[in-house]
Amino acid sequence: MRKYAKVVSQEPVGAGVFLLRLEAPAVAAATSPGTFVMLRVSGGPEPLLARPFSVHGAEGDHLLILYQVVGRGTEMLSRVEPGRELACWGPLGNGFNLDCQRPLLVAGGMGVAPLWFAARAMAERGAEVSVLFGLAGAGGYSELLAVLQDQAEAGKISLSFTTEDGSLGEKGLVTHLMPQALERADRVLACGPPAMLKAVASLAAEAEVACQVSLEAPMACGVGACLGCVVPAVPGGGYLRVCQEGPVLGAARVDWERL
Q1: 66 in Cβ contact with 113 (< 8 Å)
Q2: What are the 10-residue block averages of pLDDT along the chain, 259 residues in total?
Q3: Which CATH number fits domain 103-214: 3.40.50.80, 3.40.50.10050, 3.40.50.2300, 3.30.160.270?
Q4: Torsion-angle region of residue 169: left (phi > 0), alpha (psi -120 to 50) or beta?
Q5: What is the pLDDT of residues 105-130, one digit of tens each?
């Protein structure tokens, strides 16, 4: 059902990265880590379609969306003023299974948006949460990283960074930190670029640790009608709809060679 969410605030937390706070009581009450919402930025013909956004958090009547400007729709969203109402429907899709005690969360770039919601929720339940966060470089993300570090300390979340250019944390890919971290993990949750997710799934499988991945895919409807967001599945071929069977899927269900 389509509803409307009121923009409470837009906070820049990096170069082209924004934290959007929406007043959406019904959606906030029903959401869980890993689910997503569809937002229509414009009431006119451009852009015509709504955009999917991972939920970054839910606080009372408010819904938090962490996003990066990557195209026309998100550029328009970044200019929306507080008080404006946006068409919003959700929460949609399937979220993470949070029933574990020593989760390892692996985030690449803006994949941190849904994973941080999961990390905070599991930490509140008493889980020993470890987060590995990889970026190409720290430049432009200083405000976001400072916010995450403060929240990690407050929530007793172990947070480690990698950057490909060595500007923060260890130099290299985030998956380089996984082998040692997997030694004590009882579940892996991951979100990021497809190549990273493929590597995460492989490392988790080798360590015999259950792995869930949150996938991103172009979608027009968010409810399984348009079939624009399908990904190849195993066994036996076929496809899975990211908006319906996902966006969170068991890593073993995805045919990584055909993705």
Answers
A1: yes
A2: 86 92 95 95 70 95 95 91 93 95 96 96 96 93 91 95 94 96 97 96 97 88 78 86 92 92
A3: 3.40.50.80
A4: left
A5: 999 999 999 999 999 999 999 999 99
3-class SS letters over 133-187: EEECCCCCCHHHHHHHHHHHHHHCCEEEEEECCCCCCEECCHHHHHHHHHCCCCE
Residue 91 has which token pair? Answer: 């929460």
CATH no., domain 3-92: 2.40.30.10
Q: Could you tell me the two tokens for 101?
A: 């005690």
* Torsion 221-255-211-149 (CA) sign: negative
Cα atoms in the 13 Å half-sphere on the side-chain side of 146 = 8
CATH of domain 217-259: 2.10.240
Q: Which of 177, 209, 212 is nearest to 192 (CA)?
A: 212
User: Amino acid letter at 210?
Assistant: A
Q: Distance between CA 117 and CA 217 in Å, rounded?
A: 20
Beta bridge partners of 12: 18
- 29 vs 73: CA distance, rounded Å: 26
From first CA to last CA, the distance across the chain in angstroms is: 31
- Token pair belonging to 247: 């966006």
* pLDDT tens profile 185-210: 999 999 999 999 999 999 999 999 99
Tokens of 56: 């970054």
**The two structure tokens encoding residue 249:** 């899927």
How far apart CA 189 and CA 106 sit, in angstroms, is: 6
